[in-house]
Amino acid sequence: MRRQMNRTRGKTLAGLSVGVMLASTANAQSSVTLYGVVDTGVTYTNNQQGHSAWEATSGNESAPRWGLMGTEDLGGGLKTTFRLENGFNIDNGQLGQGGRLFGRQAFVGLVSDRLGTVTLGRQYNAVQDILGNMQISGTLTGYAAHPHDNDDINNTFRTNNSAKYVSPSFAGLQANLLYGFSNSTGFSSNNSWSAGLNYTNGPLNLGAAYAQMNHPASSAVGAVASDNYYGSESMFGTPLGSATRQKIWGAGGTYTLGSAILGLLYTGSRFDVPAASSLRFDNYEGSVVYYVTPAVVLAAAQVYTHVTQGSLSGHFNQTSTGGKYLLSKRTDLYVNVLYQKVSSSVGQAWIESISAPSSTTAQVAVVAGIRHKF
Question: pLDDT per residue over 263-276, tens digit each?
């Protein structure tokens, strides 16, 4: 089944209300906090292998999760930090991310006011951290992600065994570096690394990042585990999961203009596969988010994706629109409408996270639901 709970990342986590205190030490400078999201709804698709479909769907705007995060003040501008974040399907109660207890994130580290943050564990790479917030799926729904989530911004996989460094902000500029160990004697048999820069200045947010995965999914213990990579997705008959190397790159920005947020984003990805030409995707996205009132938010985006492999080429066009009504600061109702049209060389339209492809070159999806953050 194509829908995967692990795909919709916590892009809006910074805006969640995570003030519910689970426990605290006697030191008021140290704390542990419980937070989470529950999100479910109904999705209609006009064509899944020739038939329309109505489905109860979990995690349409934000993947359901609960987590623990905490800090301890060590003095002198130094703190410990940790996060344990679980993902689950609200409609059936199953664990997400391949059944992992803390499959979304699991890390511990040190934070220095002067030197930055170092964390170790299962984490997001620089592309996800920096460019993920610029994609419209962070405001609308995971269905608005780029075809096959080829750039991993919608979190098809996360990085295990990773060491990550995030610098302090210098005049709005911040660096992000990550390395994921293969945990095998073949040092590069399943390792990963990424690097990126983010710049924020008032209403302007800019970012660029690169990530590389060497022999991903070649083992169960590496940086990109074999149960934590692409599944049935393929292009021109080539499975994305067969890649011996994947490279992802991109740059983008958002600008807040009054009640509107304007966004531009480019990402590219290349899958090197055995005995065939490399498969390349180029994704171009323009978006706008408009706050009609503090309680009513509208959004729209247009994505064009060009894909090539040797002499083969094709393209995707997808329009994503939607809106939400905030019943409170923590609860909202949402509706999203998506339309995808592909070239005849691609064959079948398949909106990201929909259970099955269309039998034609077009597909329409409508999703409505409720989300609560705690």
Answer: 999 999 999 999 89
Give me 296's structure tokens.
């009513």
What pTM was computed for the model?
0.90
Contact 152, 352 (CB under 8 A): no
Give the contacts of 18 (CB within 8 A, at least 6 positions apart).
33, 34, 35, 69
**86-100 per-position pLDDT tens digit:** 999 999 999 999 999
Region of 259 (left: φ > 0; alpha: ψ -120 to 50; beta: rest) is alpha
Instruction: Assign domain 13-373 to its CATH superfamily.
Output: Porin (2.40.160.10)
The residue behind tokens 């600008």 is 255
342 half-sphere exposure, CB direction, 13 A CA radius: 24
Angle at 329 (CA atoms; ends 326, 332), nearest 5 degrees? 30
Sign of CA dihedral 255, 125, 29, 64: positive
Burial 139-154 (b: 16+ CB within 10 A, else e): bbbbbbbbbbbbbbbb
pLDDT, one tens digit per residue, over 294-337 is: 999 999 999 999 999 999 999 999 999 999 999 999 999 999 99
What sections of the chain are H helices per DSSP?
126-131
Predicted confidence band of residue 226 (pLDDT cuts 50, 70, 90): very high
Q: What does the domain layout of the chain look like in residue ranges?
A: 13-373
Helix (H) or strand (E) holding 128: helix 126-131
The DSSP code for 278 is P
Nearest by Cα to 255 from 246, 247, 264, 268: 264
